[in-house]
Write a structure and sequence with these properties.
This protein folds into two domains: 210 residues, Jelly Rolls; 77 residues, Jelly Rolls. Helix content is 14%, strand content 39%. The chain is built from seven helices and 19 strands. The strands form five sheets. It has a six-stranded antiparallel beta sheet with strand order 1-2-5-12-7-10, with no helix packed on it. Strands 14, 15, 16, 17, 18 and 19 form a six-stranded antiparallel beta sheet that branches. A three-stranded antiparallel beta sheet has the order 9-8-11, with no helix packed on it. Strand 16 and strand 17 form a beta hairpin. One of its GO terms (molecular function) is isomerase activity. Keywords: Isomerase, Metal-binding, Zinc. This is Phosphohexomutase.
Length: 321
């Protein structure tokens, strides 16, 4: 293995029926279409494995790096727990229109049906148009019968919780939470490595050929959590500090309002990922300086234990506890 350094990856861009152009206009992604909905920043999902975009290792896949140097890339504790699997998936999303209403199965159900992880995730709202909202869970405790009845009657939205959002809001969605990102939002999404989604309702949309997208109504029935859930996360914003936002079994996310300089020391147990959600910053390690701007995502392999962040930016810091 050559010298290991902070790694950026080529964005994997996904056209979506609900996508737009903000990944280009807001986050400077190299999109060629007017309906790009997702930029997968860091992925080992089969068929969508990230490829290094910078430095000596440019062109190497993330999977090949992990395969060659699992401890150095993933970290001792992560490798011990997950083997040579990269356990997280990082995305930016642009919702020009509402996303479908959907739910993700838990680990047990996903393993049984799809030999996959479940899909616990969090959203950080980077940009929100006026009156933009999300759908998260039920307004009140529900059940399968009520859910199916409202689905049949096309009144599902009347029993789901509709929340207005603004830039900087964070929502943590455990598996089983019925949800949808609403129109007019740019979102940073952190989730388990999984592409398993059960689509429940798609607002009766059709594509250019008049075809609706596949629904997974029966599969969703026993994946849904019918309890009322609290998904909104309050968090501190102490400058030049790692402020805890989400700490769950699958990932830890901190918020760093950077205004100056922060010296970081790590143990080597886990990789760390930084997502720049506002402004720009510099990262210095081993005497080399790397620069990042809004919309950039960088993987710090676990072998990089000491470095300095500086600049004026809002940064999400993600690792495995």
């Amino acid at each position: 293995m050559k010298n290991i350094y902070p790694l950026q990856f080529e964005p994997i861009l996904k056209d979506r029926i609900w996508g737009g152009e903000k990944l280009k206009t807001v986050l400077s992604k190299p999109i060629q279409s007017s309906t790009v909905g997702e930029s997968w920043e860091l992925s080992t999902v089969e068929g969508d494995v990230s490829v290094v975009a910078n430095g000596e290792l440019k062109g190497a896949s993330l999977m090949s790096l992990i395969d060659e140097c699992p401890n150095e890339i993933l970290g001792r504790a992560v490798y011990e727990r997950f083997g040579k699997q990269f356990p997280l998936l990082f995305k930016y999303l642009d919702a020009r229109e509402d996303l479908s209403i959907q739910v993700h199965p838990n680990d047990a159900l996903a393993k049984e049906r799809h030999n996959s992880f479940g899909k616990t995730e969090m959203w950080y709202i980077m940009q929100a148009d006026e009156d933009a909202r999300i759908i998260v869970g039920f307004k009140e405790k529900s059940n399968a019968n009520e859910y199916v009845e409202n689905l049949k009657n096309k009144s599902l939205l009347t029993i789901l919780d509709d929340v207005k959002v603004k830039s900087g809001d964070v929502f943590f969605l455990e598996t089983g939470t019925v949800h949808a990102i609403g129109a007019g939002l740019v979102v940073a999404e952190i989730q388990q490595t999984s592409d398993i989604t059960y689509r429940i309702y798609d607002f009766d949309r059709v594509d250019a050929q008049g075809n609706g997208r596949e629904l997974h109504i029966d599969q969703a029935l026993d994946a849904i959590n019918y309890e009322k859930v609290d998904t909104y996360k309050e968090y501190a914003k102490e400058v030049n500090q790692s402020n805890s936002v989400v700490d769950c079994p699958y990932f830890t996310t901190n918020f760093i309002p950077l205004d100056g300089e922060v010296v970081v020391s790590k143990t080597g147990d886990t990789f760390t990922v930084y997502m720049c959600v506002e402004g720009s910053f510099e990262l210095e390690c081993n005497g080399v300086k790397y620069n990042y701007k809004k919309g950039d995502t960088v993987l710090l392999p676990a072998v990089i234990k000491t470095y300095v962040l500086s600049g004026k930016a809002s940064v999400l810091e993600i690792y495995i506890s």
